[in-house]
Amino acid sequence: MDIAVDTRSVSMPPWSVDPADKPGAAPAIGDLFVAAALRWPERTAVSDGESSYTYAEMEQGARTVAHWLASQGVSSGDRVVVLTEKRAVMPILAVAIWKCGAVYVPLDATEPAARLRALVARLKPVVLINLSAQDAQISSDRVLNATQLASLLAGPAAGHVTVAHQPDQAAYIIFASSPSGEPQGVEVDVAALFTYFCNHNQVLRFTSDSRVLSLSPFNVDVSLEDTLLPLSLGGYVFQFRNLPAGAVIRAMLGRERITHLVAVSMLLAMITGDGRQLTRAKLPDLHTVMTGAQVCDPALVTIWREQLPQTRFLHAFGPPEATIFSVSREIVTVADSPQAASVIGRPLPGMAVRLVKDGEALSEPGVEGELWIGGQQVMRRYFDRPDETARQVVSLAGTRFFRTGDICSYTADGDLVFHRHGDEEIVWLAGRRTHLSEVRHAALGCPGVEGVFAGVVRRAARDVVVLVILSRQRQVMTQVETHLRDVLPGYMRPAVFAWWPAATAESSTPVVGRELIEQVKAAVMHSNLNHFEFLADGTVEPLEEVQPCL
Fold it and tell me: SS3 for 11?
């Protein structure tokens, strides 16, 4: 990329908190890297351990890919799906899509082909970019695969004039679990994303000196925070591609001189271990740790505060529908750690919260109500789900609020305390908020299944799904297991199955699904097998083997 400017005059985005910077107006989202590329063209911006790009290479690569996308007919408002992998090229693709005025839609390339085909059929993208070496078996008129992308980036550079989005135009769509039984697309506009960058960087304090370890897969919205936000400011991002293991990640923190670690609670527990390796000698540059999504275990917080007292420890909370995170708290002392009824903090600058019960706003400390989050970070809509959008997003005095379904209260000081999810079917699996109705909905699609109950059981130090199947035949369990392997992502697939004979159900007193799940949980404590059956007397017995259906 040809650079011929006085770099001292380059304005940085308005979310810069570096006093040495000259913050300017928000750039077009497709020009997210331009300021950094002008100021530090030869600086390494992103690496995944195998490939790396300087800022000049990132910006030129985005222009080249945008030129190709435009030649395939991609224009303003179109959707471009990326089947993602954790690779250094991903930010180039996101910005290339935005340079066309289009909508970035990242999907996990490792998810089952049938699930991906269904999502792509809903999205109707103009172009599909597939980073995976595997054939996703998705028919599309215009596909850019990994080999073609590498050739495109290695070939002649191409120019492209950025097509600017309007503030209310969609920037991205992230799919999350939903009570509808199908993945739900959270569509966020440019104004919401940029508002979030401005709001949360006052807390995170990314600058051009920041070195960030990115652990988030690109199909979740935290990747926008731990990758695109620091890159927009000239920071360095290392994309962690290895299998997650605490010792490996800790070594990477030291080797890459990481200053900012963003890790959901599950990953943070893995990194923490017993805490003895968290020393200033081994992590000399780490000055900010942020965890979130799920409320963090107080024991983990205590270890970090005691082992690295000079490292800032932040806790963030909020649904994707309010753009990544919307409530934040800095935990300063061990005594300040969240307890069983967890203090999650206050809304980010410019955001608003309400606790509502029976249609009335609450203000008294200790009184529980549903958390509503309002402000410019609230999503544009659920993609192709207008009824669900109307149900979940409400306007009050000119402010749009998202109804989270989370039950919270206030402390006497005005902080928010998280108590539980209002919907008992919302659980956390592999660090992701998951609605069990998706599992039930998928299982009910199998022939021979007359009813399904789903829950979560603790096994091998992690939460896994347990499924109780009401059917005439025990062998239907294997049919369900095979089907779910084809349609559900790995973290969502049940690990424990139990057969409840339909004949027993018809002749017995009606049983609440929750009671059946509890019975299976008790049985799991005494067996490491994965298949169980309910006997006529109501007891649960493990099954050594289940014959498949013929």
Answer: coil
Q: How far apart are alpha carbons 254 and 338 in whole angstroms?
A: 28
CA-based Rg of the chain, rounded to a whole angstrom? 24
pLDDT at 4: 45
CB neighbours of residue 183 within 10 Å? 20
Give the closest residue to 228 by CA, choosing from 68, 104, 79, 102: 104
Q: Look up tokens 């404590």; give the residue.
A: 525
Site of tokens 């990747």: 223
SS3 letters across 63-77: HHHHHHHHHCCCCCC
Residue 109 Cα distances to 181, 333, 479, angstroms: 21, 41, 25
Write a three-state SS string for 43-107: CEEEECCCCEEEHHHHHHHHHHHHHHHHHCCCCCCCEEEEEECCCCCHHHHHHHHHHCCCEEEEE
Q: For residue range 150-205, what is the model confidence (pLDDT) as tens digits?
A: 999 999 999 999 999 999 999 999 998 888 888 999 999 999 999 999 999 999 99
- Decide if 264 contacts 315 (C-beta within 8 A): no
pLDDT at 312: 96
pLDDT in tens, 383-407: 999 999 999 999 998 999 999 999 9
The model carries a pTM of: 0.93
DSSP conformation class of 121 = H
